[in-house]
Design goal:
Layout: E1 4-7, E2 10-17, E3 26-31, H1 36-45, E4 52-53, H2 54-66, H3 81-84, H4 87-95, E5 99-101, H5 103-106, E6 115-119, H6 132-152, H7 164-167, H8 181-184, E7 212-219, H9 221-227, H10 235-252, H11 273-284, E8 294-299, H12 304-308, H13 331-339, H14 344-352, H15 363-373, E9 411-416, E10 419-427, E11 433-440, H16 445-463, H17 468-475, E12 484-487, E13 494-495, H18 498-510
Parallel strand pairs: 3-4, 6-7, 7-8
Antiparallel strand pairs: 1-2, 2-3, 5-6, 9-10, 9-12, 10-11, 12-13
Length: 556
């Protein structure tokens, strides 16, 4: 189903999508040039089962930011917030996928700190450099929105339900208290008697840290560097990232005084960014008696807001895969190929010849970028662990991933309860399991056929992305004959069936999870199915009737 209408002159479309593939789909209305992943992200942001319209959902938080604060009929009332903040500008930042509010704003959670997520790659136009002026204008607009919203809502705060953005005193990278008592003294709460347009910083002590009223989170850094023709793991890439992040923090510090300024990057590699940083520094390094409330800067984490903006990688993380989830080349891959003067056909020919046209970043590159940017923002995400082994590949569900013609695997000969069989596996290049084969040695043709058919069904599921954990959960400890002592494999000593042994062995090999043996079954327990219906195993045998032969009895 597709229906079309317009929002701010932009054509919209309505598709059926859901955040969970198992959940029923619902109607999602969004711009026509946005992909289906954005529709699923919007369905994840707006919970429930009702249809979702991006214009209607955006109007909720845009109206809350631009609603007038002046009293109606007041002659000396100043300009309202709607006259200062343009709701159309906020809408266009979202339509261009340059910025979107955090989940706290989408959900209207007034007890959580509001903020915005900025997609850095969206500020690089094709064939041009980083749009520093547009980026700074967007930052100043969003900072104005967050500070004005805090002033208007200051009268709603009381001691019973304080908001963390006003009463927090947690120091950040740029807060260096001069005495230990500054760390222990709580911030003075704001009373309900504060007027709607009161300055929320006016009642603070001179040495108290400024209240934090919002956050600006950056994301999609690697895709931004790729659009600029820079590699993630390079000196130029790290210097460009430092300049962009430093500019973000400087703009957010404008009007807060000169006590909370970040470091200045030592080198600028992007044209026009040096002048923007000097201008932001001149605005921020001004001492004032009435400082503005602070806005923290940082990087976003994985969530539906990043997917709504079409990000390839969250925060400062690199793009580890050159492909999109649907198998096509990612935009960052195309940009880096174009920067090297390579077409898709040329890169494919180089790959077939054994050459690597692109060098994918590693966890070490992620760590180097992390260390380079740590001094330019207030909060950084969790430190990446370079010693951690790379996670196993997760195959996309619903897409067949055939095994390579030449592959590795294991061949295990074992026996359960005296019944011999062979377990063989086939693996992808990264060691992920893609195929299994269970072959009994001396069984009937029916048993061999059933085991081979079962193995093929499991292999097809694995190649379509079904997780091995689900198969282990369902078939480990399955109990049927033959069962007994396991010979030929020291991993297990007893199995309740051939499938029990096979999937516990696969769990040990490919999931690094060794499952314990099941309790041994007592052969003497339970009745034998070969005994007559009314004859219990513990009873004494009854004498035969005279004549040596028992009469037959028909049972209807």
């Amino acid at each position: 189903m597709n229906a079309h209408h317009f929002w701010n002159g932009v054509e919209m479309r309505t598709v059926m999508a859901s955040a969970d593939p198992d959940a029923p789909a619902r109607a999602i209305t969004l711009p026509a040039d946005w992909d289906d992943e954005a529709a699923a992200a919007l369905a994840d942001i707006v919970t429930g089962t009702r249809p979702v319209s991006l214009p209607m959902e955006s109007a909720r938080w845009i109206d809350s930011f631009t609603s007038g604060a002046a009293q109606p009929g007041a002659k000396d009332a100043g300009p309202s917030r709607g006259e200062i903040i343009s709701g159309r500008s906020l809408a266009w930042l979202l339509i261009l996928r340059q910025a979107a509010p955090t989940l706290a704003v989408w959900h209207g959670a007034s007890d959580r700190r509001p903020g915005f997520v900025l997609n850095l790659a969206a500020f690089v136009l094709p064939g041009e450099d980083f749009a520093a002026e547009t980026f700074v204008a967007a930052l100043r607009l969003l900072c104005l929105v967050l500070r004005t919203d805090a002033r208007v809502k200051a009268a709603r705060r009381n001691g019973e339900l304080p908001l963390d953005e006003v009463t927090t005193t947690e120091p950040t990278l740029f807060d260096l208290p001069t005495t230990p008592s500054e760390m222990k003294s709580p911030a003075k709460p704001v009373t309900p008697s504060v007027p709607a347009e009161a300055d929320i910083t006016g009642s603070l002590l001179p040495d108290a840290p400024l209240p934090i009223v919002g956050e600006i989170l950056l994301t999609n850094l690697d895709a931004c560097l790729a659009a600029l023709g820079l590699d993630y793991d390079s000196d130029d890439g790290r210097d460009a990232a430092c300049s962009i992040v430093a500019l973000t923090t400087l703009v957010s510090r404008e009007g807060t005084g000169c006590d909370h300024l970040p470091l200045m990057p030592h080198r600028h590699v992007l044209p026009g960014l040096s002048a923007a940083i000097r201008d932001a520094w001149s605005r921020a390094a001004v001492d004032t008696d009435t400082p503005e409330a602070r806005i923290e800067t940082g990087f976003s984490s994985t969530g539906p807001v990043d997917a709504l903006l079409g990000c390839e990688a969250c925060g400062l993380a690199p793009v580890f895969s050159p492909l999109r989830p649907d198998g096509r080349l990612a935009a960052s891959t195309l940009n880096r190929l174009a920067a090297r003067g390579l077409s898709v056909e040329t890169a494919l020919a180089a790959s077939l010849a054994g050459e690597s046209p692109l060098i994918l970043p590693t966890t070490d590159a992620h760590m180097r970028m992390y260390r380079a940017l740590a001094g330019f923002v207030d909060r950084v995400p969790a430190r990446p662990d370079p010693t951690m082994a790379p996670p196993p590949r997760i195959l996309p569900r619903g897409t067949l991933q055939p095994l390579p013609e030449r592959h590795t695997g294991i061949a295990q000969k074992a026996s359960v309860g005296g019944h011999r069989f062979f377990l063989r596996t086939a693996e992808y290049e990264d060691g992920t399991l893609g195929e299994i084969a269970l072959t009994p040695a001396r069984e009937s043709a029916m048993v061999r056929g059933l085991m081979e058919s079962f193995s093929q069904a499991v292999s097809i599921g694995l190649q379509y992305g079904a997780p091995l954990e689900d198969f282990v959960e369902r078939f480990a400890y399955s109990s049927f004959g033959p069962a007994g002592t396991v010979e030929g494999d020291p991993v297990t000593s007893y199995a309740t069936s051939i499938l029990d042994y096979a999937f516990r062995a696969l769990s040990n090999l490919y999931l690094q999870q060794r499952l314990p043996d099941a309790p041994h079954e007592d052969d003497q327990q339970g009745g034998s199915p070969l005994l007559p219906f009314d004859f219990k195993s513990g009873d004494a045998a009854k004498p035969s009737p005279p004549g040596g032969r028992r009469g037959l009895r028909l049972v209807s």
